[in-house]
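Hi R.,

Here are the chain sequences for the assembly we discussed:
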Amino acid sequence: MSNVPPDLQYTKTHEWVRTLADGIVEVGITDHAQHALGDLVFVEVPEGGRTVAVGDPCAVVESVKAASDVYSPVAGEVTGGNPQLAAEPEVVNSDPYGAGWLMRVRPAQGAALPGLLSAAQYTELLASEE
Amino acid sequence: MAFIPHTPRDVETMLASIGVTSMEQLFDEIPAGLRVKSLQGIPPAMNEMEIGRLMRSRARQDGQLLCFMGAGAYEHHIPSAVWAITTRGEFYSAYTPYQAEASQGTLQLIYEYQTMIASLTGMHVSNASLYDGASAVAEASLMAVRANRKSKSQRILVPTTVNPYYRKVAAAMTCNQGLRFEEVPYAPASGCTALESLAAYEGQDITALVVQQPNFFGQLEDVEALADWARSQGALLIAVVNPTSLAILKPPGEWGEKGADIAVGEGQPLGVPLSSGGPYFGFMAARMEHVRQMPGRIVGRTVDLSGREGFTLTLQAREQHIRRAKATSNICTNQGLLMTAATIYLSLLGPQGLERTAAASHARTRELVAALSRVKGVRPVFEGPYFHEAVLSCDRPVGPLLESLASRGILGGFDLSEHYPELGSALLVCATETKTTADIESYAAALGEAMQSMRAA
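And here is the predicted structure of the full complex:
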Protein backbone atom coordinates (compact mmCIF):
# COMPACT_ATOMS: atom_id res chain seq x y z
CA MET A 1 0.00 0.00 0.00
CA SER A 2 1.40 3.38 -1.04
CA ASN A 3 2.20 6.03 1.49
CA VAL A 4 0.00 9.11 0.89
CA PRO A 5 0.71 11.78 3.54
CA PRO A 6 -2.52 13.61 4.46
CA ASP A 7 -0.95 17.11 4.54
CA LEU A 8 0.04 17.23 0.85
CA GLN A 9 -1.82 17.82 -2.41
CA TYR A 10 -1.51 15.59 -5.45
CA THR A 11 -1.89 15.49 -9.22
CA LYS A 12 -3.35 12.83 -11.47
CA THR A 13 0.13 12.39 -12.94
CA HIS A 14 1.53 11.34 -9.53
CA GLU A 15 3.29 14.50 -8.41
CA TRP A 16 2.87 15.83 -4.88
CA VAL A 17 2.76 19.49 -3.88
CA ARG A 18 3.69 21.03 -0.55
CA THR A 19 3.08 24.71 0.13
CA LEU A 20 5.97 26.09 2.17
CA ALA A 21 5.73 28.94 4.68
CA ASP A 22 6.85 31.64 2.19
CA GLY A 23 4.23 30.67 -0.41
CA ILE A 24 6.73 28.71 -2.51
CA VAL A 25 5.56 25.23 -3.48
CA GLU A 26 7.75 22.16 -3.36
CA VAL A 27 7.12 19.41 -5.92
CA GLY A 28 8.11 15.77 -5.99
CA ILE A 29 6.85 12.41 -7.18
CA THR A 30 4.69 10.20 -5.00
CA ASP A 31 5.64 7.01 -3.26
CA HIS A 32 3.40 5.19 -5.74
CA ALA A 33 5.29 6.76 -8.68
CA GLN A 34 8.76 5.96 -7.32
CA HIS A 35 7.66 2.40 -6.63
CA ALA A 36 6.20 1.98 -10.14
CA LEU A 37 9.39 3.34 -11.74
CA GLY A 38 11.75 1.19 -9.71
CA ASP A 39 15.32 2.11 -8.78
CA LEU A 40 16.06 5.59 -10.10
CA VAL A 41 19.41 6.00 -11.82
CA PHE A 42 19.12 9.59 -12.99
CA VAL A 43 17.07 12.66 -12.18
CA GLU A 44 17.15 15.87 -14.19
CA VAL A 45 15.79 18.87 -12.34
CA PRO A 46 15.09 22.34 -13.77
CA GLU A 47 17.36 25.35 -13.40
CA GLY A 48 16.29 28.18 -11.14
CA GLY A 49 14.78 31.13 -12.98
CA ARG A 50 12.82 29.10 -15.49
CA THR A 51 9.18 30.09 -16.03
CA VAL A 52 6.76 27.18 -16.12
CA ALA A 53 3.08 26.75 -16.96
CA VAL A 54 0.74 24.14 -15.51
CA GLY A 55 1.47 20.82 -17.20
CA ASP A 56 4.91 21.77 -18.58
CA PRO A 57 7.37 18.89 -18.47
CA CYS A 58 10.10 20.24 -16.23
CA ALA A 59 11.97 17.32 -14.75
CA VAL A 60 12.91 13.81 -15.89
CA VAL A 61 13.12 10.76 -13.70
CA GLU A 62 14.89 7.77 -15.19
CA SER A 63 14.94 4.31 -13.69
CA VAL A 64 16.42 1.04 -14.85
CA LYS A 65 13.03 0.39 -16.50
CA ALA A 66 11.80 3.68 -17.94
CA ALA A 67 12.23 7.42 -18.23
CA SER A 68 9.32 9.71 -17.39
CA ASP A 69 8.62 13.40 -17.40
CA VAL A 70 7.49 15.24 -14.31
CA TYR A 71 4.94 17.99 -14.99
CA SER A 72 4.62 21.26 -13.17
CA PRO A 73 1.42 21.36 -11.11
CA VAL A 74 1.54 25.15 -10.93
CA ALA A 75 2.38 28.19 -13.07
CA GLY A 76 5.25 30.34 -11.86
CA GLU A 77 8.99 30.62 -11.67
CA VAL A 78 11.26 27.78 -10.64
CA THR A 79 13.34 28.91 -7.67
CA GLY A 80 15.56 25.85 -7.85
CA GLY A 81 15.93 22.11 -8.39
CA ASN A 82 17.10 19.71 -5.70
CA PRO A 83 20.90 19.75 -6.08
CA GLN A 84 21.38 16.50 -4.18
CA LEU A 85 19.68 14.39 -6.86
CA ALA A 86 22.37 14.72 -9.53
CA ALA A 87 24.70 12.59 -7.43
CA GLU A 88 22.10 10.65 -5.41
CA PRO A 89 18.96 9.95 -7.49
CA GLU A 90 18.11 7.04 -5.17
CA VAL A 91 17.00 9.54 -2.53
CA VAL A 92 13.75 9.87 -4.52
CA ASN A 93 13.15 6.16 -3.87
CA SER A 94 14.09 6.21 -0.20
CA ASP A 95 12.47 9.51 0.81
CA PRO A 96 10.05 10.65 -1.93
CA TYR A 97 8.22 13.17 0.27
CA GLY A 98 11.27 14.60 2.04
CA ALA A 99 14.87 14.75 0.85
CA GLY A 100 13.70 13.47 -2.55
CA TRP A 101 11.84 16.65 -3.54
CA LEU A 102 12.49 17.65 -7.16
CA MET A 103 11.92 21.38 -7.49
CA ARG A 104 10.54 24.50 -5.85
CA VAL A 105 8.29 26.95 -7.71
CA ARG A 106 7.19 30.46 -6.77
CA PRO A 107 3.59 30.56 -8.03
CA ALA A 108 2.81 33.46 -10.37
CA GLN A 109 0.84 36.37 -8.89
CA GLY A 110 -2.65 35.15 -8.09
CA ALA A 111 -2.01 31.70 -9.51
CA ALA A 112 -4.29 29.19 -7.90
CA LEU A 113 -3.34 25.54 -7.53
CA PRO A 114 -6.05 24.27 -9.86
CA GLY A 115 -7.32 20.75 -10.00
CA LEU A 116 -5.11 19.36 -7.28
CA LEU A 117 -6.27 16.31 -5.40
CA SER A 118 -6.47 15.87 -1.66
CA ALA A 119 -4.81 12.87 -0.05
CA ALA A 120 -8.19 11.12 0.12
CA GLN A 121 -8.91 11.80 -3.57
CA TYR A 122 -5.44 10.65 -4.60
CA THR A 123 -5.83 7.45 -2.56
CA GLU A 124 -9.11 6.87 -4.39
CA LEU A 125 -7.37 7.46 -7.74
CA LEU A 126 -4.72 4.89 -6.87
CA ALA A 127 -7.38 2.39 -5.87
CA SER A 128 -9.23 2.91 -9.15
CA GLU A 129 -6.02 2.45 -11.15
CA GLU A 130 -5.24 -0.89 -9.57
CA MET B 1 13.68 -7.87 -58.74
CA ALA B 2 12.34 -5.02 -56.67
CA PHE B 3 14.05 -4.42 -53.34
CA ILE B 4 10.71 -4.66 -51.54
CA PRO B 5 9.88 -8.36 -51.48
CA HIS B 6 6.07 -8.05 -51.23
CA THR B 7 4.14 -9.43 -54.17
CA PRO B 8 0.97 -7.59 -55.33
CA ARG B 9 -1.01 -10.38 -53.63
CA ASP B 10 0.88 -9.84 -50.31
CA VAL B 11 0.01 -6.16 -50.49
CA GLU B 12 -3.66 -6.91 -51.22
CA THR B 13 -3.85 -9.35 -48.33
CA MET B 14 -2.30 -6.88 -45.91
CA LEU B 15 -4.58 -4.04 -47.02
CA ALA B 16 -7.64 -6.30 -46.74
CA SER B 17 -6.74 -7.45 -43.26
CA ILE B 18 -6.72 -3.86 -41.97
CA GLY B 19 -9.84 -3.02 -43.94
CA VAL B 20 -8.66 -0.62 -46.64
CA THR B 21 -8.94 -1.21 -50.34
CA SER B 22 -5.88 0.54 -51.72
CA MET B 23 -2.51 2.07 -50.86
CA GLU B 24 -4.05 5.43 -51.75
CA GLN B 25 -6.70 4.91 -49.06
CA LEU B 26 -4.05 3.81 -46.57
CA PHE B 27 -2.21 7.12 -46.93
CA ASP B 28 -5.23 9.44 -47.35
CA GLU B 29 -4.60 10.80 -43.85
CA ILE B 30 -1.56 12.66 -45.21
CA PRO B 31 -2.67 15.98 -46.75
CA ALA B 32 -2.17 16.09 -50.52
CA GLY B 33 0.01 19.19 -50.24
CA LEU B 34 2.60 17.33 -48.17
CA ARG B 35 2.98 14.42 -50.56
CA VAL B 36 5.76 13.97 -53.04
CA LYS B 37 4.03 13.67 -56.41
CA SER B 38 6.77 11.96 -58.34
CA LEU B 39 10.50 11.68 -57.93
CA GLN B 40 11.70 14.16 -60.49
CA GLY B 41 15.17 13.72 -61.92
CA ILE B 42 15.30 10.03 -61.06
CA PRO B 43 16.01 8.05 -64.23
CA PRO B 44 14.22 4.77 -64.98
CA ALA B 45 15.33 1.69 -63.06
CA MET B 46 18.30 -0.31 -64.33
CA ASN B 47 18.93 -4.01 -63.94
CA GLU B 48 22.03 -5.45 -62.29
CA MET B 49 23.89 -5.90 -65.55
CA GLU B 50 23.20 -2.34 -66.68
CA ILE B 51 24.12 -0.78 -63.36
CA GLY B 52 27.33 -2.83 -63.20
CA ARG B 53 28.33 -1.54 -66.61
CA LEU B 54 27.52 2.06 -65.68
CA MET B 55 29.53 1.85 -62.46
CA ARG B 56 32.55 0.32 -64.22
CA SER B 57 32.54 3.12 -66.76
CA ARG B 58 32.30 5.70 -63.98
CA ALA B 59 35.16 4.02 -62.10
CA ARG B 60 37.35 4.23 -65.21
CA GLN B 61 36.82 8.02 -65.31
CA ASP B 62 38.37 8.25 -61.86
CA GLY B 63 41.77 7.61 -63.39
CA GLN B 64 43.59 6.78 -60.12
CA LEU B 65 45.21 10.21 -59.88
CA LEU B 66 48.17 10.92 -57.61
CA CYS B 67 46.24 12.55 -54.76
CA PHE B 68 47.30 15.78 -53.03
CA MET B 69 43.78 16.67 -51.96
CA GLY B 70 42.50 16.60 -48.38
CA ALA B 71 39.80 19.08 -47.36
CA GLY B 72 38.12 16.62 -45.00
CA ALA B 73 39.00 13.18 -46.40
CA TYR B 74 42.55 11.86 -46.39
CA GLU B 75 44.47 9.14 -48.20
CA HIS B 76 46.38 7.04 -45.71
CA HIS B 77 47.97 3.64 -46.04
CA ILE B 78 45.52 0.97 -44.85
CA PRO B 79 47.18 -2.31 -43.86
CA SER B 80 45.63 -5.18 -45.88
CA ALA B 81 44.62 -6.94 -42.70
CA VAL B 82 42.14 -4.16 -41.82
CA TRP B 83 39.55 -4.96 -44.46
CA ALA B 84 40.38 -8.69 -44.55
CA ILE B 85 39.26 -8.84 -40.90
CA THR B 86 36.46 -6.25 -41.18
CA THR B 87 34.72 -8.18 -43.97
CA ARG B 88 34.66 -11.48 -42.07
CA GLY B 89 31.08 -12.73 -41.73
CA GLU B 90 31.12 -12.22 -37.97
CA PHE B 91 31.61 -8.46 -38.39
CA TYR B 92 29.97 -7.83 -41.75
CA SER B 93 26.98 -5.72 -40.73
CA ALA B 94 26.25 -2.01 -40.85
CA TYR B 95 24.16 -2.10 -37.71
CA THR B 96 24.52 -1.95 -33.97
CA PRO B 97 23.42 -5.21 -32.35
CA TYR B 98 20.37 -4.99 -30.13
CA GLN B 99 20.56 -8.36 -28.42
CA ALA B 100 23.42 -8.58 -25.98
CA GLU B 101 22.96 -12.35 -25.63
CA ALA B 102 23.71 -12.86 -29.33
CA SER B 103 26.25 -10.13 -30.01
CA GLN B 104 29.03 -10.18 -27.42
CA GLY B 105 31.81 -10.03 -30.02
CA THR B 106 30.48 -6.99 -31.81
CA LEU B 107 29.56 -5.25 -28.55
CA GLN B 108 33.07 -5.83 -27.21
CA LEU B 109 34.52 -4.42 -30.42
CA ILE B 110 32.36 -1.28 -30.10
CA TYR B 111 33.39 -0.96 -26.45
CA GLU B 112 37.03 -1.10 -27.50
CA TYR B 113 36.37 1.45 -30.26
CA GLN B 114 34.79 3.79 -27.68
CA THR B 115 37.80 3.32 -25.41
CA MET B 116 40.17 4.20 -28.24
CA ILE B 117 38.21 7.31 -29.23
CA ALA B 118 37.96 8.46 -25.61
CA SER B 119 41.69 7.95 -25.21
CA LEU B 120 42.56 9.72 -28.50
CA THR B 121 40.36 12.73 -27.73
CA GLY B 122 41.17 12.84 -24.00
CA MET B 123 37.43 12.83 -23.25
CA HIS B 124 35.56 10.72 -20.69
CA VAL B 125 33.06 8.91 -22.88
CA SER B 126 32.50 8.08 -26.57
CA ASN B 127 29.43 6.86 -28.40
CA ALA B 128 29.43 3.99 -30.88
CA SER B 129 29.91 6.39 -33.88
CA LEU B 130 27.72 8.59 -36.07
CA TYR B 131 27.19 8.92 -39.83
CA ASP B 132 30.04 11.28 -40.74
CA GLY B 133 32.01 14.31 -39.59
CA ALA B 134 29.51 16.83 -40.92
CA SER B 135 26.43 15.33 -39.25
CA ALA B 136 28.51 14.84 -36.09
CA VAL B 137 28.93 18.65 -35.93
CA ALA B 138 25.14 19.03 -36.24
CA GLU B 139 24.54 16.45 -33.51
CA ALA B 140 27.15 18.12 -31.29
CA SER B 141 25.39 21.48 -31.72
CA LEU B 142 22.01 20.00 -30.80
CA MET B 143 23.64 18.25 -27.85
CA ALA B 144 25.20 21.52 -26.69
CA VAL B 145 21.77 23.18 -26.69
CA ARG B 146 20.44 20.38 -24.46
CA ALA B 147 23.50 20.29 -22.21
CA ASN B 148 24.00 24.04 -21.71
CA ARG B 149 20.88 24.59 -19.66
CA LYS B 150 21.98 28.03 -18.52
CA SER B 151 21.89 29.30 -22.11
CA LYS B 152 18.55 30.06 -23.73
CA SER B 153 19.73 31.62 -27.00
CA GLN B 154 20.54 28.50 -29.12
CA ARG B 155 23.29 30.64 -30.66
CA ILE B 156 26.33 28.70 -31.81
CA LEU B 157 29.47 30.56 -32.86
CA VAL B 158 31.17 28.89 -35.81
CA PRO B 159 34.41 30.30 -37.15
CA THR B 160 34.71 30.32 -40.95
CA THR B 161 37.80 28.15 -40.48
CA VAL B 162 35.45 25.22 -39.76
CA ASN B 163 34.97 22.99 -42.83
CA PRO B 164 32.42 24.86 -45.01
CA TYR B 165 30.58 21.63 -45.85
CA TYR B 166 30.23 20.80 -42.15
CA ARG B 167 28.81 24.29 -41.54
CA LYS B 168 26.31 23.83 -44.36
CA VAL B 169 25.18 20.38 -43.19
CA ALA B 170 24.91 21.48 -39.55
CA ALA B 171 22.77 24.47 -40.51
CA ALA B 172 20.53 22.36 -42.77
CA MET B 173 20.04 19.66 -40.12
CA THR B 174 19.21 22.04 -37.29
CA CYS B 175 17.49 25.07 -38.86
CA ASN B 176 14.00 23.79 -38.07
CA GLN B 177 14.94 23.33 -34.42
CA GLY B 178 15.75 26.99 -33.94
CA LEU B 179 19.54 26.82 -33.78
CA ARG B 180 21.40 29.85 -35.09
CA PHE B 181 24.93 29.55 -36.37
CA GLU B 182 26.89 32.79 -36.41
CA GLU B 183 30.12 33.05 -38.36
CA VAL B 184 33.32 34.32 -36.79
CA PRO B 185 35.95 35.58 -39.26
CA TYR B 186 39.59 34.51 -39.34
CA ALA B 187 42.71 36.68 -39.13
CA PRO B 188 44.06 37.15 -42.68
CA ALA B 189 47.70 36.66 -41.67
CA SER B 190 47.37 33.46 -39.64
CA GLY B 191 44.30 31.82 -41.22
CA CYS B 192 43.12 31.21 -37.66
CA THR B 193 40.04 32.32 -35.73
CA ALA B 194 40.58 35.92 -34.68
CA LEU B 195 40.25 36.22 -30.91
CA GLU B 196 39.56 39.95 -31.34
CA SER B 197 36.38 39.22 -33.31
CA LEU B 198 35.08 37.15 -30.38
CA ALA B 199 35.23 40.26 -28.21
CA ALA B 200 32.02 41.47 -29.88
CA TYR B 201 30.20 38.52 -28.28
CA GLU B 202 31.47 39.04 -24.77
CA GLY B 203 28.78 39.05 -22.10
CA GLN B 204 26.14 37.74 -24.53
CA ASP B 205 24.23 34.48 -24.21
CA ILE B 206 26.19 32.08 -26.42
CA THR B 207 25.33 28.37 -26.24
CA ALA B 208 28.50 26.98 -27.75
CA LEU B 209 31.64 27.77 -29.70
CA VAL B 210 32.85 25.36 -32.39
CA VAL B 211 36.60 25.10 -32.96
CA GLN B 212 38.20 22.95 -35.65
CA GLN B 213 41.77 21.76 -35.05
CA PRO B 214 43.62 21.63 -37.38
CA ASN B 215 41.25 24.04 -39.08
CA PHE B 216 39.98 23.75 -42.66
CA PHE B 217 43.13 25.53 -43.92
CA GLY B 218 45.32 23.02 -42.06
CA GLN B 219 46.41 25.76 -39.63
CA LEU B 220 46.65 25.20 -35.89
CA GLU B 221 44.21 27.32 -33.91
CA ASP B 222 45.05 28.77 -30.50
CA VAL B 223 42.78 26.19 -28.89
CA GLU B 224 43.87 27.03 -25.35
CA ALA B 225 42.71 30.63 -25.64
CA LEU B 226 39.52 29.71 -27.52
CA ALA B 227 38.57 27.04 -24.96
CA ASP B 228 39.14 29.41 -22.05
CA TRP B 229 37.19 32.17 -23.79
CA ALA B 230 34.20 29.85 -24.26
CA ARG B 231 34.41 28.77 -20.62
CA SER B 232 34.55 32.37 -19.39
CA GLN B 233 31.39 33.17 -21.38
CA GLY B 234 29.40 30.17 -20.15
CA ALA B 235 29.47 28.66 -23.65
CA LEU B 236 30.21 25.00 -24.25
CA LEU B 237 33.19 24.16 -26.45
CA ILE B 238 32.67 21.80 -29.39
CA ALA B 239 35.98 20.55 -30.79
CA VAL B 240 36.11 19.28 -34.38
CA VAL B 241 39.30 17.27 -34.69
CA ASN B 242 41.23 15.12 -37.15
CA PRO B 243 41.81 11.75 -35.44
CA THR B 244 45.25 11.19 -37.00
CA SER B 245 46.47 14.56 -35.76
CA LEU B 246 45.53 13.66 -32.18
CA ALA B 247 48.53 11.32 -32.06
CA ILE B 248 50.79 14.39 -31.99
CA LEU B 249 48.54 17.31 -31.00
CA LYS B 250 47.05 18.06 -27.60
CA PRO B 251 43.71 16.21 -27.29
CA PRO B 252 40.56 18.36 -26.90
CA GLY B 253 40.02 16.99 -23.39
CA GLU B 254 43.10 19.01 -22.37
CA TRP B 255 42.39 22.27 -24.21
CA GLY B 256 42.53 25.22 -21.84
CA GLU B 257 41.77 24.95 -18.18
CA LYS B 258 38.86 22.52 -18.35
CA GLY B 259 39.03 21.01 -21.84
CA ALA B 260 36.39 20.77 -24.56
CA ASP B 261 32.85 19.67 -23.67
CA ILE B 262 32.22 17.69 -26.84
CA ALA B 263 34.72 16.40 -29.41
CA VAL B 264 33.61 15.24 -32.84
CA GLY B 265 35.19 14.56 -36.19
CA GLU B 266 35.38 12.56 -39.37
CA GLY B 267 36.66 9.04 -38.73
CA GLN B 268 37.57 8.26 -42.35
CA PRO B 269 41.35 8.74 -41.87
CA LEU B 270 41.31 5.70 -39.57
CA GLY B 271 41.30 2.86 -42.08
CA VAL B 272 38.47 3.90 -44.41
CA PRO B 273 39.46 4.30 -48.08
CA LEU B 274 38.61 7.39 -50.13
CA SER B 275 35.56 6.35 -52.12
CA SER B 276 33.62 9.13 -53.84
CA GLY B 277 32.70 10.74 -50.54
CA GLY B 278 31.66 7.76 -48.50
CA PRO B 279 30.46 5.85 -46.66
CA TYR B 280 32.62 7.31 -43.91
CA PHE B 281 31.85 7.60 -40.20
CA GLY B 282 31.66 10.29 -37.56
CA PHE B 283 32.96 10.01 -34.02
CA MET B 284 31.76 11.80 -30.91
CA ALA B 285 33.13 11.97 -27.38
CA ALA B 286 32.14 14.11 -24.40
CA ARG B 287 32.71 14.94 -20.78
CA MET B 288 30.90 12.53 -18.45
CA GLU B 289 28.60 15.26 -17.12
CA HIS B 290 27.04 15.54 -20.60
CA VAL B 291 26.65 11.81 -21.30
CA ARG B 292 22.85 11.79 -20.95
CA GLN B 293 22.57 14.40 -23.65
CA MET B 294 24.72 12.39 -26.03
CA PRO B 295 23.03 11.02 -29.16
CA GLY B 296 23.46 7.50 -30.49
CA ARG B 297 24.38 4.14 -29.15
CA ILE B 298 26.71 3.62 -26.20
CA VAL B 299 28.08 0.22 -25.23
CA GLY B 300 28.94 -0.44 -21.60
CA ARG B 301 30.81 -3.16 -19.75
CA THR B 302 28.95 -5.05 -17.06
CA VAL B 303 28.72 -8.46 -15.37
CA ASP B 304 26.16 -11.20 -15.91
CA LEU B 305 24.27 -13.14 -13.21
CA SER B 306 27.30 -15.32 -12.53
CA GLY B 307 29.59 -12.32 -12.25
CA ARG B 308 31.27 -12.83 -15.62
CA GLU B 309 32.28 -9.82 -17.72
CA GLY B 310 29.92 -8.90 -20.54
CA PHE B 311 28.97 -6.01 -22.81
CA THR B 312 25.62 -4.38 -23.42
CA LEU B 313 23.98 -1.26 -24.81
CA THR B 314 23.67 1.24 -22.00
CA LEU B 315 22.00 4.58 -21.15
CA GLN B 316 19.23 3.68 -23.58
CA ALA B 317 16.72 6.00 -21.92
CA ARG B 318 18.25 8.75 -24.14
CA GLU B 319 17.19 6.89 -27.24
CA GLN B 320 14.07 6.94 -29.33
CA HIS B 321 12.87 3.40 -28.66
CA ILE B 322 12.41 4.46 -25.00
CA ARG B 323 11.99 8.23 -25.07
CA ARG B 324 10.12 8.51 -28.37
CA ALA B 325 9.79 12.14 -29.46
CA LYS B 326 11.90 13.33 -26.53
CA ALA B 327 14.93 11.24 -27.44
CA THR B 328 18.25 13.07 -27.73
CA SER B 329 18.43 12.28 -31.44
CA ASN B 330 16.84 10.23 -34.18
CA ILE B 331 20.14 8.37 -34.50
CA CYS B 332 19.39 4.87 -33.27
CA THR B 333 22.27 3.05 -34.90
CA ASN B 334 25.92 3.59 -35.72
CA GLN B 335 28.27 3.20 -38.68
CA GLY B 336 29.08 -0.34 -37.59
CA LEU B 337 31.23 -1.56 -40.44
CA LEU B 338 33.38 1.57 -40.81
CA MET B 339 33.80 1.80 -37.04
CA THR B 340 34.93 -1.85 -37.08
CA ALA B 341 37.58 -1.03 -39.70
CA ALA B 342 38.77 1.94 -37.61
CA THR B 343 39.09 -0.20 -34.48
CA ILE B 344 41.15 -2.79 -36.33
CA TYR B 345 43.24 -0.04 -37.99
CA LEU B 346 44.01 1.55 -34.62
CA SER B 347 44.77 -1.85 -33.07
CA LEU B 348 47.23 -2.68 -35.83
CA LEU B 349 48.98 0.70 -35.78
CA GLY B 350 48.99 1.21 -32.04
CA PRO B 351 49.72 4.62 -30.50
CA GLN B 352 53.26 4.64 -31.91
CA GLY B 353 52.13 3.72 -35.41
CA LEU B 354 49.51 6.46 -35.44
CA GLU B 355 52.08 8.92 -34.16
CA ARG B 356 54.48 7.94 -36.95
CA THR B 357 51.66 8.32 -39.52
CA ALA B 358 50.83 11.79 -38.21
CA ALA B 359 54.47 12.90 -38.03
CA ALA B 360 55.22 11.57 -41.53
CA SER B 361 52.13 13.33 -42.95
CA HIS B 362 53.25 16.58 -41.36
CA ALA B 363 56.81 16.17 -42.68
CA ARG B 364 55.57 15.33 -46.20
CA THR B 365 53.30 18.38 -46.23
CA ARG B 366 56.19 20.64 -45.19
CA GLU B 367 58.21 19.15 -48.01
CA LEU B 368 55.29 19.69 -50.42
CA VAL B 369 54.79 23.32 -49.40
CA ALA B 370 58.53 24.00 -49.81
CA ALA B 371 58.64 22.32 -53.24
CA LEU B 372 55.51 24.04 -54.59
CA SER B 373 56.57 27.43 -53.21
CA ARG B 374 59.67 27.24 -55.40
CA VAL B 375 57.38 27.27 -58.46
CA LYS B 376 57.20 30.76 -59.96
CA GLY B 377 53.93 32.51 -59.03
CA VAL B 378 53.12 30.22 -56.07
CA ARG B 379 53.42 31.24 -52.42
CA PRO B 380 52.06 30.08 -49.05
CA VAL B 381 49.19 32.27 -47.84
CA PHE B 382 49.27 31.93 -44.06
CA GLU B 383 51.96 32.14 -41.39
CA GLY B 384 52.18 29.85 -38.42
CA PRO B 385 52.13 26.12 -37.82
CA TYR B 386 50.00 23.68 -39.82
CA PHE B 387 49.41 19.93 -39.68
CA HIS B 388 49.10 18.14 -43.02
CA GLU B 389 47.41 20.75 -45.19
CA ALA B 390 48.31 24.25 -46.31
CA VAL B 391 46.93 27.04 -48.48
CA LEU B 392 48.91 28.20 -51.50
CA SER B 393 48.14 31.21 -53.62
CA CYS B 394 48.73 30.93 -57.38
CA ASP B 395 48.97 33.80 -59.83
CA ARG B 396 46.90 31.79 -62.38
CA PRO B 397 43.25 30.77 -61.81
CA VAL B 398 43.06 27.57 -59.77
CA GLY B 399 40.16 25.93 -61.68
CA PRO B 400 41.95 25.57 -65.04
CA LEU B 401 45.20 24.83 -63.20
CA LEU B 402 43.64 21.81 -61.48
CA GLU B 403 42.22 20.60 -64.80
CA SER B 404 45.62 20.86 -66.40
CA LEU B 405 47.18 18.95 -63.46
CA ALA B 406 44.48 16.25 -63.72
CA SER B 407 45.38 15.73 -67.37
CA ARG B 408 48.92 15.08 -66.09
CA GLY B 409 47.63 12.45 -63.63
CA ILE B 410 47.67 14.65 -60.53
CA LEU B 411 44.81 15.60 -58.21
CA GLY B 412 46.37 18.90 -57.18
CA GLY B 413 44.19 19.94 -54.25
CA PHE B 414 40.99 21.73 -53.28
CA ASP B 415 39.96 24.96 -55.02
CA LEU B 416 39.15 27.45 -52.24
CA SER B 417 37.76 30.19 -54.50
CA GLU B 418 34.08 29.20 -54.12
CA HIS B 419 34.04 29.15 -50.31
CA TYR B 420 36.75 31.73 -49.66
CA PRO B 421 36.65 34.22 -52.58
CA GLU B 422 38.64 36.73 -50.50
CA LEU B 423 41.71 34.49 -50.87
CA GLY B 424 41.71 34.94 -54.64
CA SER B 425 43.16 32.06 -56.60
CA ALA B 426 43.99 29.76 -53.70
CA LEU B 427 44.59 26.05 -53.42
CA LEU B 428 44.40 23.78 -50.36
CA VAL B 429 47.01 21.02 -50.64
CA CYS B 430 47.72 17.94 -48.55
CA ALA B 431 50.39 15.25 -48.41
CA THR B 432 50.18 12.20 -46.17
CA GLU B 433 52.66 9.43 -45.44
CA THR B 434 51.60 7.83 -48.75
CA LYS B 435 53.53 10.42 -50.80
CA THR B 436 57.22 10.06 -51.63
CA THR B 437 59.78 12.74 -52.40
CA ALA B 438 59.54 11.66 -56.06
CA ASP B 439 55.73 12.18 -55.98
CA ILE B 440 56.19 15.65 -54.53
CA GLU B 441 58.83 16.55 -57.10
CA SER B 442 56.67 15.34 -59.95
CA TYR B 443 53.78 17.48 -58.62
CA ALA B 444 56.05 20.55 -58.43
CA ALA B 445 57.30 19.93 -61.96
CA ALA B 446 53.76 19.47 -63.33
CA LEU B 447 52.57 22.62 -61.55
CA GLY B 448 55.49 24.59 -63.01
CA GLU B 449 54.65 23.35 -66.52
CA ALA B 450 50.92 24.03 -66.09
CA MET B 451 51.55 27.58 -64.87
CA GLN B 452 54.05 28.15 -67.66
CA SER B 453 51.67 27.00 -70.38
CA MET B 454 48.85 29.13 -68.93
CA ARG B 455 51.12 32.17 -68.99
CA ALA B 456 52.10 31.45 -72.60
CA ALA B 457 48.45 31.01 -73.65
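Chain B has a mean pLDDT of 93. The first helix of chain B runs from residue 8 to 18.

Let me know if anything looks off.

Best,
T.
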